[in-house]
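sry for the spam today, last one i promise. struct tokens for design, 460 residues
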């Protein structure tokens, strides 16, 4: 079926129909399309196009379509151009001739904007819930290993000792910003476009605010041409989704390394790893690798729509139909990755002795020693040089920090007073970093409590 035709002497070619049809993917919008059309029927009733009975008949028919759409046979040999066309055909089958009134003063250009907004709003609500689960799992793991000390890295070189909980809270902060970005995207999604017509505004005096209230939108759009041309709200979501995937990917990369034999810090649960068809000993981190892999795919979804929109003449162009597949794909991949990451975090164990040994065997304490010297009055540059020499000497003689005694330190340089030897233990340096945002044990305990309170607030 088509929603047009009068102006044509012959129908579309088979190749064009096949090429331009979108039902095979936009059928995902069917529930949103029906709900939007029910609200539109009520708007038509308020302006006198539909009687109360006609409106009730259409609303009931849309409810039946929504219910039937769950059945496999519903979409069988549907040759309709898109989901909006299919829904109107099904409406005619159920409600008869009055179905011909449903599209009064309405364009698919605004309808598609409405449907995508309704669908995306629900996706965002589900995704923010999944983000909260990941953040909750990070907090839970941080509490499980609240005293564990690990080397923090820059350039993949051991840098300074930090608490494992502090490391996990770094990702909590990233996901908290992602959560914020999702809610900001939601605000721009949550605006009601109906009443815009094809581009010029509808010829019928709809109470647009009433339609917005009916569908739970916070506001109405302000310009009909903007509505037909705009997909910013989809881009906002795709950007927020991409940054979230970026963070998931970096966490995945870390844990792939930390669970390797070379690190030996983490044991990933059996349930989230897989074996090799040839090598019997393997336990591979495929779940994390797929999260890392899917991040590239979601960035592709973002750039696909971004580039599609560039240079499009105002207002609607059929190119814009290409918004849906990237959007659907990004939402599905993000949602799947969040679910997977939560399951990984919840089933992963830390072996604290391994990172503790890595911290003790290396010179992650060098900065702590230099800062201790600076606190005692040595200018930092000289302190840096002095500790650098101590490290060089140790490397040459194969000594680690704990091999030095207070006396030996003092003999190496008189600036080292006896109380400074404690900084050869990585746990001592941590205690000097109690300022807000630092890895001191008290600062991290406070940050954990605050993170938990913020999460509780969001879940409300
Ligand atoms: N399937 C179309 C899309 O997704 C609906 C809008 C059609 N509008 C039009 N003027 N052809 O963009």
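last one done:
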């Amino acid at each position: 079926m088509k929603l047009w035709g009068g102006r044509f002497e012959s129908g579309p070619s088979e190749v064009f129909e096949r090429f331009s049809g979108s039902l095979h993917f936009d059928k995902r919008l069917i529930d949103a399309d029906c709900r939007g059309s029910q609200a539109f029927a009520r708007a038509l009733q308020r302006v006198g196009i539909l009687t109360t009975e006609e409106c009730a008949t259409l609303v009931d028919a849309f409810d039946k379509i929504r219910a039937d759409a769950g059945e496999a046979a519903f979409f069988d040999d549907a040759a309709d151009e898109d989901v909006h066309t299919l829904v109107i055909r099904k409406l005619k089958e159920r409600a008869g001739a009055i179905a011909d009134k449903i599209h009064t003063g309405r364009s698919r250009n605004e309808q598609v904007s409405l449907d995508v907004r309704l669908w995306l709003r629900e996706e965002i609500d589900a995704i923010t819930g999944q983000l909260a689960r990941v953040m909750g799992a990070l907090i839970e793991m941080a509490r499980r290993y609240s005293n564990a000390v690990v080397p923090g890295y820059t350039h993949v070189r051991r840098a300074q000792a930090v608490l494992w909980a502090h490391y996990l809270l770094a990702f909590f902060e990233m996901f908290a910003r992602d959560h914020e970005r999702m809610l900001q995207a939601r605000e721009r999604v949550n605006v009601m476009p109906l009443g815009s017509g094809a581009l010029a505004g509808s010829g019928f005096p709809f109470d647009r605010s009433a339609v917005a209230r009916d569908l739970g939108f916070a506001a109405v759009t302000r310009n009909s041409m903007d509505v037909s041309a705009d997909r910013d709200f989809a881009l906002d979501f795709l950007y927020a989704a991409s940054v979230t995937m970026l963070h998931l990917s970096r966490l995945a990369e870390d844990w792939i390394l930390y669970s390797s034999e070379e690190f030996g810090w983490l044991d990933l649960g059996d349930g989230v790893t897989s074996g090799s068809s040839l090598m019997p000993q393997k336990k591979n981190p495929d779940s994390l690798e797929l999260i890392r892999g899917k991040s590239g795919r979601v960035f592709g979804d973002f750039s696909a729509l971004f580039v599609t929109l560039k240079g499009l003449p105002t207002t609607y162009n059929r190119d814009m139909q290409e918004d849906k597949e990237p959007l659907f794909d990004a939402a599905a991949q993000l949602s799947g990755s969040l679910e997977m990451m939560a399951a990984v975090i919840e089933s992963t164990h830390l072996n604290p002795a391994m990172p503790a040994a890595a911290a003790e065997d290396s010179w992650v304490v060098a900065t702590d020693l230099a800062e201790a010297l600076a606190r005692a009055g040595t200018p930092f540059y000289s302190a840096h040089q002095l500790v650098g020499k101590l490290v060089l000497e140790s490397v040459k003689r194969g000594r680690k920090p704990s091999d030095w005694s207070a006396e030996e330190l003092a003999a190496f340089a008189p600036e080292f007073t006896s109380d400074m030897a404690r900084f050869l233990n990585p746990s001592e340096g941590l205690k000097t970093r109690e300022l807000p945002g630092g890895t001191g044990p008290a600062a991290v305990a406070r940050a954990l409590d605050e993170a938990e309170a913020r999460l509780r607030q969001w879940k409300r």
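The chain has a mean pLDDT of 97. ok im logging off now
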